[in-house]
Write a structure and sequence with these properties.
globular; alpha+beta; about 140 residues; Trna Endonuclease, Chain: A, domain 1
C-alpha cells in the first residue's frame, strides 16, 4: 500500500486541517482553560466560552458582581508577543461580538462592561490585563 502525500511530500492533514492549525487550536483551548481558571480564582463566574457570532468571537464572558467582562485570550511563545497580537482589528471584532452578546442577553445591558485580555505563554503564569481596551475604537 502506498502512502499519500501532499505536493510538499507531507501526509495529508486529517479532515483537511493542517497539523499546524490543529496544534494551534489545541494551544488556544489550553490557554482558554488556564484563563478561565485564573478568572475563577479571582472571583469571576465564567458564563460563556468561545461565544461566536457572524461578526466575531469572544473567548470568555465572565461576571463578577455588577461587572460583565469580555475576555480575549492570547497564547504565544512570549507574553509580549501575545500582547502584540491583540490588534485594533481584533479589538473591533471582539467589540462587535460583545454587542451581539448584549443583544441576546438584555439583562446584561445594565451591567458595567469591561474588555480584558489574558496573555498566556509556556512556563509562565497567565497575565490578566483588566480594561485592556475599550469600545471607543
Amino acid at each position: 500500500m502506498t502512502r499519500r502525500t501532499d505536493p510538499n511530500g507531507k501526509p495529508p492533514a486529517e479532515n483537511g486541517v493542517s497539523a499546524g492549525r490543529q496544534a494551534a487550536f489545541r494551544l488556544g483551548l489550553s490557554a482558554e482553560r488556564q484563563a478561565a481558571a485564573l478568572l475563577r480564582v479571582k472571583g469571576y463566574r465564567v458564563v460563556a466560552r468561545r461565544f461566536r457570532t457572524g461578526v466575531g468571537e469572544v473567548d470568555i464572558v465572565a461576571r463578577r458582581g455588577d461587572l460583565l467582562v469580555f475576555v480575549e485570550v492570547k497564547a504565544r511563545a512570549r507574553l509580549d508577543d501575545a500582547a502584540e497580537a491583540v490588534t485594533p482589528r481584533a479589538q473591533r471584532r471582539i467589540i462587535a461580538a460583545a454587542e451581539a452578546w448584549l443583544a441576546k442577553n438584555p439583562d446584561d445591558v445594565t451591567r458595567n462592561i469591561r474588555f480584558d485580555v489574558i496573555l498566556v505563554a509556556p512556563r509562565r503564569w497567565p497575565r490578566h490585563l483588566p480594561g485592556a481596551f475599550d469600545a471607543s475604537l
